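Hey,

Quick one before I head out. I ran the complex with 2-acetamido-2-deoxy-beta-D-glucopyranose overnight. Inputs first:
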Amino acid sequence: MRWLFAAIFLVISIHHVSPTVVRGGAVLPAAAFLSPAYYHKSCPNLESIIDQKMRAWLKRDYTMAASIIRLHFHDCAVRGCDASVLLNHPGSERAAEASKTLRGFSLIDEIKAEVEKQCPKTVSCADILTAAARDATVLAGGPFWEVPFGRRDGRISLAREANSVPQGHENITQLLGLFDKLGLTFVDLVVLSGSHTIGRCSCHAIKQRLYNFTGSGMADPSMNANYVNVLKKQCRSDGSYVNLDFWTPRKFDTAYYRNLEKKMGLLSTDQLLHSDMRTGSVASLMGSQPELFTTQFAASMVKLGNANVLTRKEGEVRFKCSSLNSY
Ligand code: HEM
Ligand SMILES: *[C@@H]1O[C@H](CO)[C@@H](O)[C@H](O)[C@H]1NC(C)=O
């Protein structure tokens, strides 16, 4: 019964968009100005350039797939998907403590350089990062979706705002609040967290949970005890990494949700998605219905990519993703 309600809500949430822009009396969301055809005339090769670069890079280093997906999330979570996370100057988001383990900047720079050769001053860094995250998902074995284009790059990037991106020790109320600001629901929260089915986590981020949960001097009791012991062995130093999905860390599947049922969520925020009344039914549903997860992941990623975007005359199209245009 629980999952039936969740399933009904899913169908509703796919079609939900929040109106934010008023134009000629008609209320349109900013994302309504995005379109998959946006660069068809001005940069017809865009998606194949991104696809080729992603393939070549991932062949050398498959771990970059997860890092690019995370980079896109961190971009969208702060000031919307405006490439603000890519700016590399003192005091920018990238300089924040919360951004220390972000990777993939040079891959995006490399794609941008090639795009500039073929379509100068045309394609925004925000659009490149969004499409790269889609390709990373596909290349890791996840679903494909059409990416709507037409985002503009922001000119503001502040380190203190990057520290509001969730770090893994928040409660579900806080996560729901953050997602709500991005136009995302509890379904999107559960489904997008499913990308923790690939990728890694620095031991620094889970140290408290293994050794001193909420000051108790003990491991988080909501974590499987054998799993705690394995993690302690893998985490010999703060600089070590462990897989977010213990069983199939390279595969984009639904093992993440089944891990939660075994008390094997790596982050306490992962585990809470399973135990919290507001999110638990969606988490079990995703664990048992792989096709539903695949479809909904694509829908939720489109929503994430549309979050608080800049369009038309707002922002700029950067020449280099790591620095603002100078006039
Ligand atoms: C909902 C709250 C979320 C929290 C608390 C969270 C937290 C984290 C943390 C702590 C890490 C490990 C970082 C480190 O190395 O120290 C991580 C990794 C990752 N996150 Fe999340 N995350 C959240 C949502 C998301 C979303 C929405 C996405 C994508 C749509 C995402 C994608 C990833 C990926 C792919 C990795 C692996 C990165 C890599 O291997 O380089 N996360 N996340
Ligand atoms: C979640 O965290 C916030 C901020 O720390 C706190 O005010 C709130 O009481 C917490 N909510 C729950 C349900 O634990």
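The longest strand covers residues 21-23.

Talk tomorrow,
K.
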